[in-house]
Amino acid sequence: MTDPILSVEGVTKTYKGGVTALQPVDLEIRRGEIFALLGPNGAGKTTLISIVCGIVTPSAGTIRVDGHDALRDYKGARRKIGLVPQELSVDMFERVIDTVNFSRGLFGRAPDPAYVEQVLRDLSLWDKRHAKLMELSGGMKRRVLIAKALSHEPDLLFLDEPTAGVDVELRRDMWKLVHRLRERGVTIILTTHYIEEAEEMADRVGVIAKGKLLLVEEKAEMMKKLGKREMVLTLAEPMTAIPAELGEWNLTLEDEGKRLRYIFDARAERTGIPSLLRQLGDMDIGFNDLETYKSSLEDIFVDLVEGTRA
Ligand SMILES: Nc1ncnc2c1ncn2[C@@H]1O[C@H](COP(=O)(O)OP(=O)(O)OP(=O)(O)O)[C@@H](O)[C@H]1O
């Protein structure tokens, strides 16, 4: 990859107690992309982010953030990064604008009221700028965390589970916000348990489980490559069992024999649907409805993660 904004090479982490949270991880992030790191609880997502942000020391490996070695030149690397943590760790008595200005100062940036105003406006926090954090709703507090993370004009923004525990409306707002930030040139890495979040937001998806990065793919490519597809026929007459003549097809009978499900591989050149339908016609098996489905990222994810179970 030419000039990645982040490159992670051979990074591992074994915590003091002996838990191996990351097996050697190699990952490159392109400038300007939205990358979703998708994985179940305990997969190592937060550990990886924390290592890149210099909060956790890796057991091995190197990290470069926009050319800065994250270990040897921690400050240079860290300045490029905005981190939105999972937990609210803010002083509830502080006012919105003060906490954002304070975060900017921590990175040695000179005050820039116009920039901070823009960030607060983008996050619909401008009207609340003089409110104390304790006076804000949960969703607004989360936006304040984002404003703080953006306060020093980072090029790379980490969102650690940005929508965990927020309502649907706020989740959609977050998604829009992430797209807007990208339009402004910010590269975004987010972690999530939610498939639909990765599906909705990301350009590329990395699937991580048990500390192993199992796969990194363009989202569309991943769906295409690994997608199974399904066709469901609603039968005119319920069946008690699948006739032996249909034994070679990957069929299941559902809904008390009223629906027949056919699963096929989207990668295969031929779906087999025409010949299956012909055969059903020859056998006088009628149907009232035919639907096809593409498997979602969810199915792919479950397949992958289950594949890693010992
Ligand atoms: N400070 C620590 N000391 C010891 N073990 C830890 C520490 N932090 C995390 N772990 C362990 O490392 C593994 C990976 O945890 P991590 O928090 O990175 O996962 P995650 O993918 O972010 O999970 P979640 O989605 O639940 O936040 C887990 O087994 C966890 O228990």
UniProtKB/TrEMBL annotation:
Pfam entry (one): ABC_tran
Keywords, sorted A to Z: ATP-binding, Nucleotide-binding, Transport
A molecular function (GO) term: ATP binding
Keyword ATP-binding: yes
Gene3D superfamilies reported in the protein's UniProt record: P-loop containing nucleotide triphosphate hydrolases
ABC transporter domain ranges (all copies): 6-235
InterPro entries cross-referenced by the UniProt entry: AAA+_ATPase, ABC_transporter-like_ATP-bd, ABC_transporter-like_CS, ABC_transporter_ATP-binding, P-loop_NTPase
Protein name: ABC transporter ATP-binding protein
Organism this protein belongs to: Sphingomonas zeae
